[in-house]
From TrEMBL:
Keyword tags: Signal, TPR repeat
One of the Pfam families matching this protein, by short name: TPR_6
Segment forming the signal sequence: 1-19
Protein name: Tetratricopeptide repeat protein
Superkingdom of origin organism: Bacteria
Gene3D superfamilies (alphabetical): Tetratricopeptide repeat domain
Intervals holding TPR repeats: 623-656
Coiled coil: none
PROSITE patterns attached to this UniProt entry: PROKAR_LIPOPROTEIN (PS51257), TPR (PS50005)
Amino acid sequence: MNLRIIAFFSCLLWLSGCASTPESAESDAQFNEVESLKPKLESVDQIDPANIPDVEPVQVQSVSHSSVVKSYQRALKLISDPAVKARIERRLAGLAMVESEELQVQGETFEEQKLAMSKFDSTIKAYKKLLQDYPNHPDNDKVYYQLAKAYGLKGHLEASDKLLGKLLERYPNSSLASEAYYRRAEFLYSNKKYPQAGVAYERVIKRNDNPKTVTNARYMLAWSLFKQSDYEASLDEFTQLLDQLAPTKEVYQSLTRNQKALIEDAFRAMSYAFGYQEGGKSVVQYFEKIGNRHYESLVFSSLGLLYQSKERYQDAADVYLAYVKRHPLAADSPEVFARVIKVYELGRFPSVIIPAKAQYATDYGLSSRWYAAQAEAISTKHTQRLKDYISQLASYFHTRGQKAKKESKEQKDYFNQAIAWYTVYITDFPNENDVAEKHHRSGDVHTLLGNSKAASSSYLKAAYDYPDYDIEKRSAAGYAAVVAFQKIAEASKAEQNIRQKIDQSLKYADVFGNDSRSIGVLVDASESLLNLNEYEPAREIARKVIVKLIESGKSEYVVDQSWNTLKWQPYSSRKHRRASWVVVGHASFELADYPQAENGYFQALRLMKKNNELYSSLRQRLAISIYRQGEGLAKEGKNQEALNNFERVLVVVPEADIKVQTQYDITAQHLILKQWSPAITKLKAFRASYPKHELTKGIREKLIFAYEQSERWPDAANELTQMANDERLDDEQRRKALFQAATYYEKGGKTPQAIDRYRSYAHGYPKPFIVNLETQHKLAELYKARNETNKRKYWLKKIIANDKNAGSERTDRSKYLAAAASFELADDHWRSFTRAKLTLPLGKSIQRKQAAMQKVIKEYTKVADYGVSEFSTASTHRIADAYYRMSKDLMGSERPKGLDELELEQYDILLEEQAYPFEETSIEVYETNIARTVDGVYDDWVKESYKKLAKIMPARYAKEEQVEGYVDVIQ
């Protein structure tokens, strides 16, 4: 019987904790059903001791019995000495006995056994003959014993027993007495005469003259008592037997096979004895009575195994638990506890297996009292079992948590227990090959609990502290750590946590660069750096990702499963290239590296579908990047290149939000480049497209400027007219625009439009006075050019009136214009005067002529009053001319008809008398005009006055030296 030390345990906490679950209730029901149907122990009559041989197995030797027998038989015939003859006969009987036993042992067939039985007959005959021939021989006790043995081996047990009785009766002190008693006891026992057999076994024990026989006798005495149901007495005998054969563990280990078999059978009998009582409770009570024994665990285990063999699993567990409770710090306590767990597994009691393993790990773990007591003698087997149980517990609670309802208290409890057992394993077995995986799984559970900080710590250890850990699992742990840091950063938004996530991401990508997930990690790191305004490092990382992906040519995705806890997203080269180009674009944009920003956005858009949420915004960023390049070039004075970039904005991103600004800036560049025609075209288009845009307010001015520069005066005037009519502008702006419009119409040859705008200005804007006066002057001039005399005169009169009423606003210019207007109007009277003829009757015509002259003098006097030299000399000259012409017209007037010569002469004298005052007055006025030379005035009108005086008074004014004198004076 191969016995092992069986462990047992007590896990009341777990048992009570699981009792209320549906699973445990079902298991308990199953257990109760099993217990109600479990086999009972065999009755006492059904249990027999093992067949323990009293000697070692017969070693059959190849000996020629016949030759020896023949030798003794020849000698017997030759010997006459009775004593010697008796010895030879005994030897021959003994040889016959040996040969019979050999035949019995070696015989395999019926015929061979039949031969052996016939040989026993010869042996019996030989021993009987010895008793008959030598009835008083001192060694007959041995003959009786051998004869009884022969009968016994032949199967005649009663005959054998009688012979043994005679031996004891006749030879009570024989050295074979103990053996005889023992054989008689066996016969009694085999005939179920247990009390008598017990007495016989006791005699053997009392004689105590053969240790081997005494041992067997005590063994059978215990069985005899057992058969009588005297279990306590039987147990005492078995205990004495055990104490005798194996007083210590060391002695037990040195026993022979038969001795160990005897002890094992003793355990079996004791198991039944305790089983017929109260099982484990009886064992405990028994050893409390007799004291501790080193083989107690074997007794408990034997009973437990007996129960197991009968499928009485709870009884078996109770036995093991009883031992553990009795000897919690015993070296073999864990082994017995382990047997409890095995029994639960055999009995299929899942509700108690896990609590049992938990109790095992608690009671016999590295932090337990038991471990402290046994620290120097811990077996490798125990350590391995401890690791297995702790690992199983962690996995069990991990799995149960995954199956529980999400975010329930039950799930949290399971996960917390899983973490606790992972922690125990990591703490107790830090150097195990699978401790990295325990860190990994602990991180998974922390993740499922939402404890990202603790998860990150576990993942980091699994990823970086155990280089021998499977590289793919290390990579998965490293990635999980990055994910945990990502969650921490997202939850807190603290810059410190974000930077910590970035650092871990870069570390992951550096260590696990060949893992497909490293690409996504780098992309996320670059995006995070971008959000922290770390533009240069963000762009650098993004560029590395792009180069790496392009060089690898990867476009497929890889899925990595991680223990059914965390499922990583597939990675896509296209997705990550797109994200990296976005980072390059944004970072470059913020760094004002707009060419690189443009390239980044362009590449990202190439990898993006139009329905992507970023598509529109990136298009706008692309437009701005191109626009900013144009701005920079414009600032550098590279206006044509700036223009090209602005125009690219509209080509590349026609829907750009900055489209309006760009179009506006395009016109500005055209203007700067003096590209008037395209500038005008685009300015007009801009205004037509965006009539209400803020920038449109400046279009008109730019158009006017472009028209001016390209000398498109009427077009400029049209724009100015619109300004003048724009009520949104203030009066001053409108006034200036109207005046400028009139000017440009005039300049562009659009006289009617010019007159219209000047006229509107003259009527609408009396202030500033001088500008209004100039406008009236313009109108007068334009009407003059068009020969519209009356209209001209109207404005000449307006000029004169306005100047007259100007008051303090009068200027030299206003006086000049008024003087000019007055002079021109006076010239009209002059022409009327010159056209008036002196006719008969002369009196009436002279009156008309004189009235006209007075009007001329009056008007020219007004002109002279302006004090404008140019018109004062002219007016003075005209007045002198009026007097002179009156004199001449009188002298040249028509003579009445019918006058004789004398009358005619007298008539002429009268005319001269009338004309002379006029001539004299004219001379005086002419001289007044030429006198202005003293003041430096020597214009054409003064010259004309000189000419007139030279004609009238040649002697005085026709002299050259006099003229030169005046000239000298002027000089």
